[in-house]
Amino acid sequence: MNDAVHHAQQLDKMYDTREDFAAHNPRTTVYQLVQELLNMSNQ
User: Fold this and answer.
1) Are 12 and 29 in contact (CB under 8 A)?
2) pLDDT tens sequence across 2-43
3) Residues whose CB falls within 8 Å of the CB of residue 9, separated by 6 or more in sequence, listed in order
4) Domain residues of the chain, as ranges?
5) Hey, which of 8, 14, 20, 24 would disulfide with 31, CB 3.0 to 4.6 Å?
């Protein structure tokens, strides 16, 4: 799972300043939710 989160973070950084949202395939920010859930489960 760590690899998937890391890859998603890299894609997010790559498209961060671009505004042509239709070309952001396969960008997603679900990794942020996953990180929050993992943090909650570790407490």
Assistant:
1) yes
2) 898 898 899 888 888 888 877 777 777 889 999 999 999 988
3) 31
4) 2-41
5) 8
